[in-house]
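Fill-in record for Histidine ammonia-lyase.
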Amino acid sequence: MHAVTVGIAPLSPEDVLAVAREGAGVVLSADAENEIAASRKIVESLAEDVRPHYGVSTGFGALATRHIPLDRRAALQRSLVRSHAAGSGPEVEREVVRALMVLRLSTLATGRTGVRVETARVYAAMLSAGITPVVHEYGSLGCSGDLAPLAHCALAAMGEGTVRDGSGELVPAAQALAAAGITPVVLEEKEGLALINGTDGMLGMLVLACHDLRRLLRSADLAAAMSVEALLGTDAVFAADLQALRPHPGQAASASNMRVLLAGSAVMASHRTPECTRVQDAYSLRCAPQVHGAARDTVAHAESVAGRELSAAVDNPVVTVDGRLESNGNFHGAPLGYVLDFLAIAVADLASMSERRTDRFLDVARSQGLPAFLADDPGVDSGHMIAQYMQASVVAELKRLAVPASVDSIPTSAMQEDHVSMGWAAARKLRRGIDGLARVLGVELLTAARALDLRAPLVPAAATGAVRDLVREQVPGPGPDRYLAPEIEAAVELVASGAAVAAAETVTGPLH
C-alpha cells in the first residue's frame, strides 16, 4: 500500500481511513517540514523572553501562574506528558489510536504548533512501523483536547510506556522503537503541550463513524425494501413525485434506493389487485425513506463539521501565521461533541424502526399470512422469536446511548477548566451504537430473507433476490429450529462488511 503524505493541506477522510484501518504508512512532505522548522524558530526565539508564554515558560492549567526557569523548561514538557498519561480502563481500538496519531501529525505539519521537525518525524515513523501506543477508554473530557489519550501516544514517542508492535504484541515502547530503528524523542520547549492539546481522538472517531454509517444507511434501505416486499407492502409511496413534495435530499436518496431495489418484484405485483383492501402500510414501512433520509442528512451535517475540523490547527498556544504565540480556546470539543451525540440519536432511531419492521413478520395478526414467528412448526419451533428479543435488547441499549454526553460538564484544574465538552465520551458511545445498529439490521435482513422464502413460489425482485441468495450461502433456508446465534452473526457480518449491499448492487448499480 502506498504511504499517505501528510503536508500543509488537510488530510481527507480517505487518508485517515487508509492510515487507521488499512495500516498505510505516513511520510511528511517537504513543505510541511519547512513550515514546521520555520515555526520552531519562533518558539526558540522566545526562550529568554521575560514575558510569560503559556506552556513555554509557565505551568499548565491552574498552574499557569508559575514561572518556569529556562533550565527547567525541557523537564516541564516531559513532566507534562508523564502526568497526563493517566488513562484507565480497557484498551482503545488500534484504528482509533492510529487515527488520532495521524491527525495530531497533520496539525504538527501545519507549522502552527512550534514543534521540531524531528519530533514530527517520530510520529510518522511510528505510524509507518505499525507501532500503536496503548490508550485507555477513560481519561479524556474532550477539552484542552483529548489530553490523556494523546499523552499516552506522546509518552510512547519518548520511549516510555507500553505499545503494541506491528504484530500486535504488547511490548515496552523503548523496545518497539529500537526494533524499528526509531530514536525516542527528547522533548524541548512547547513540544509536550503541542503533542497532547488537540481534538484528534474525537475527530478520528467521527471520521470512522461517518464512513461506517454511510454503509449502514444503504443496508438499512436494503433491509427495509426486503421487509416491505415480504410483508406485502406497497412501493407506490416511494414514488419520486411524492418524495419531491418534501425536498430533503436524504429522503430522496433513500426512496430512490428502495424503488430500484424493489423493481420487477413478482411478490409486489401479486397483490396489486382490486382484491387488496389495505389503504396504506404501517409507518415503519411507509415512512422508511423519511427516517432513513433524516439520518442521511444528519451524517451529511456531521461530515461537514468533520471536514472543517480536518482543516483546523488545534493547539494552545498556537504560532500564528504572522509569528505570534497566542493562547486560544480552539481545543474545546463542542463542535464535535454535538454532532457525535446527534449521530447517536439517528443510530438509535434507525435501529428502533428496523426492530419494528422485524416484529411485524413474527405476529400473525400483522404478517399477511406468514406462520407465527416464521417457525416451521409453531409451538414446537420458536422460529425468530428470540432473534427479535435480541434486537429489542440492543435497541434499548441504543436509546440509552443516545442520551447526549455533550450536555454534561465537570469542572477541572481548580476551576480553570470550568467547562468541558465530553466529546470523547460522545464518540465512544457512538462507536458502540454503530455496532448495535449493524446487529439490529442483520436480524431484519435475516428475517426478511426467511419471509421471502416463505412467499414462494412468488419470486422477489432481482436485487432483493440476490441478497436473499447471498444469505442462503451462509444460512440455510426455513426449517426446524437450529442454533440461531451463528446465523445471526453471519447476517450481521453481511451488513457490517457491506457484502449484502454489494450483492444488491450487482443488479441495481451503485446505490445512493
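KEY FINDING: The first helix runs from residue 13 to 22.
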